[in-house]
Amino acid sequence: MARKETITKDEILNAAFQITRENGFRQVSARTLAAKAGCSTQPIFRVYKNMEELGGELFEKAITFFNDYYAGFPKKSETPFVDLGLAYIRFAQEEQQLFKLLFMADDRHGRSLYDLLNGKNGWVVKEINNAKFYGCKDPSGMFMRMWIFIHGSACMALTGDYDLQEEDTVKLLEESYRAFLNV
pTM of the entire structure? Predict the structure, then answer.
């Protein structure tokens, strides 16, 4: 009779996600994962061909986490790109390691930053359409201008150089949107 597996694929993936969230993806190794999951390395390689396969599933889990984060983020501003920007910056502040994995890593598993931010629900497309609705003549260009500003702010949050309160961030995003309308 075969020995019953005591650890599941989901448990291994969740342990890898916890390590990534706390310490970064670079800290996920077979040994650290086995220690976190409370098993030997053998079950890891029984369910995953290699660590790259695990990394791909971990990346997908991080994408889902960001999508859920943004979906649950309160939408308060009518100004296009403000809520998206605020959520992105806050995600960088609150989930630094996941932000680095998704938006700063060299390997994004074939996805662009745009694809990751747009998500399965087309959030960027909705914001671009919203900008068009409010009379922006170049909504795609507006997105690019706002995105450079938003991404730069989020990166500053990672280094501790961004210390604005939420209301200041909203004001800055709204002012930037209005200023970019005249470009």
Answer: 0.91
